[in-house]
Design goal:
The chain is mostly beta strands. Helices cover about 0% and strands about 50% of the residues. The protein contains no helices and four strands. It has a four-stranded antiparallel β-sheet, with no helix packed on it. Strand 3 (about 30-35) and strand 4 (about 40-45) form a beta hairpin. About 5% of the residues are buried.
């Protein structure tokens, strides 16, 4: 489990073999989408409909 002083905090998780997670950078508030399927994975900023990063205050 993540400690309270970690920069990134997982706020959502779905799946076991094909995983989708949302992480927040606690310093900037920017939300990131993580996806893992088998040996492949990706981590990218989560964007709103206007193409701007989603920021949690």
């Amino acid at each position: 489990m993540m400690s309270n002083d970690s920069r990134f905090q997982k706020i959502y998780s779905q799946g076991t073999l094909s995983v989708v997670e949302i992480w927040i950078d606690t310093l900037t508030g920017v939300n990131y989408l993580f996806h893992r399927d088998g040996n492949a994975a990706g981590f990218t900023p989560l964007l709103d409909p206007d193409g701007k990063p989603v920021v949690t205050k």
